[in-house]
Design brief:
Elements: H1 3-8, H2 16-22, H3 52-65, H4 79-91, H5 94-109, H6 130-133
């Protein structure tokens, strides 16, 4: 990568290498009609489907930056179109497939300790052990009117 390419690189952009890995597993949802829906127009009318690379780049931009669907830059297409593709591709299992592909690739390169697993006990509540931990620090069982400010 040259110095000029490094300056224009953005952390949310999709590399050509990544695209080459996933382009063959993108579901073909363009032009498919829902048999349970009634349509006003004939097949083939309306806007042309967006190029899949552009759609995936837009979805990855949203996932990487955390912006709202409607706030995505217009270079990726409309937010509603991207969201519709996201929903269709999710239903088709596309993101699970590329996640699994990424895990396989990482396992091939670095290795994953599949036999070793860990559970984080901090994520589990202990509702029956109140005697050991005591009352909630924000509710010390004080009586009184909670709607008026204290005289302090």
């Amino acid at each position: 990568m040259s110095v000029m390419e490094k300056k224009s690189y953005k952390s949310w952009t999709m590399s050509d290498e990544f695209w080459d890995e996933v382009k063959d597993v993108i579901p073909d949802t363009a032009g498919k009609r829902d048999p349970n829906k009634t349509y006003q127009h004939k097949p083939g009318q309306g806007r042309k489907p967006l190029p899949p690379r552009k759609v995936l780049a837009g979805i990855l931009y949203i996932l990487r930056t955390g912006c709202q669907w409607k706030a995505v830059p217009k270079e990726y297409g409309s937010g509603s179109s991207l969201h519709r593709y996201f929903q269709k591709w999710t239903e088709a299992g596309f993101f699970r497939k590329i996640w699994a592909m990424g895990l396989d690739k990482y396992d091939e390169i670095k290795g994953i300790g599949w036999d070793w697993q860990s559970g984080d006990g901090c994520m589990v509540k202990a509702p029956l052990d109140r005697e050991a931990v005591g009352p909630n620090p924000t509710d010390r069982g004080k009586n009184g009117d909670k709607t008026r400010p204290s005289d302090g």
